[in-house]
Amino acid sequence: MTEALSTMALRADARAAAAEVAEARGLTVCELGDDPAEHRTVEHLLSRIWSTGKEPSPMPGEIMRMLSYTGSYVAGAYRGNRLVGAGVGFLTDTLPDIGAAHLHSHVVGVAAEARGRQVGFALKLHQRAWALEHGFDRVTWTFDPLVRRNAYFNLCKLGASAVRYLVDFYGDMPDGLNTGQGSDRLLVEWQLNAPEVAAAAAGTLAQPDARFGRDDVTHLLRCAARSVPVLAPQPRRGPAVCEIPPDIEAVRDADPELGVAWRRAVRSVLSAAMSDGTRIAGFDRTLGYLLLDDGDIR
């Protein structure tokens, strides 16, 4: 009985947190209905966000219709009657390092004119509430480790944890954001019932470990003048950080080869570190990724 009440309270709190953020931003976040036209509208929004041009959308409407019909997650964020964001996920129980049945969030996108207005946060909180209502205690997804705003959003704003570095996960992606830049991704796990996630849903940001403010932290990768990546010449000792550029999209637009250099540099640091058992303990907008190994963890 106590466990059932605890689960009910968690679900109620998740619904309330999602509703509060959506209402504060003038949004309605809801699952899509049975009308295929709704799914086509989401398809077109995602095509604009990812600048796919004549290439297929990141998520075709007919696939979303099928996912909705078979019980997966397809939702839109609306301001009035205008779609300004969407999220799509499916159910799985086979991901390495996760295992248990959960929701995998394949894509969440926000229209350019609505960015910076917590639309993505509202969608993720709706997704959390949906997953808990359906009996799941975790959500996974991937993101490009070079995109600073996404690293901050996922690891600090949401309280998710990075669990694996995936090298060139999608192969070459023929869209306006990723072409020729590789498709490395970080797999993250969102433990929906964790205290830090509940705190994040209530608006409390995850704080960096105090040890990362010390002078003896090893800087494995720095962003030098003109956004050039510089790998550390010294071996790692204790807590370490991996910096990324402030705006990798601007770097890629101005100098695609420099964007590729950043991909290789971050891969050489994070992929090797995580393969050796180092964990990403968080993200700091100034320092970058915060790295700890078993000997550093208190």
Descriptive account of the structure:
The protein has 298 residues and is of the alpha+beta class. The protein has eight helices and twelve strands. A seven-stranded mixed beta sheet has the order 1-2-3-4-5-7-6, sandwiched between helices. The chain has a five-stranded mixed beta sheet with strand order 9-8-10-12-11. Strand 2 and strand 3 form a beta hairpin. Helix 1 (2-24) packs antiparallel against helix 4 and helix 2 packs across helix 3 (61-69). It is globular, with a radius of gyration of 19 Å.
Which terms would index this structure?
alpha+beta, 36% helix, 8 helices, single chain, 298 residues, 2 domains
The dominant shape is globular
What separation lies between the terminal Cα atoms?
A: 35 Å
Task: Specify the CATH class of the largest domain.
Answer: Alpha Beta
Provide the CATH superfamily of the largest domain. Gcn5-related N-acetyltransferase (GNAT)
Stretches where pLDDT is under 50 for at least 5 consecutive residues are none
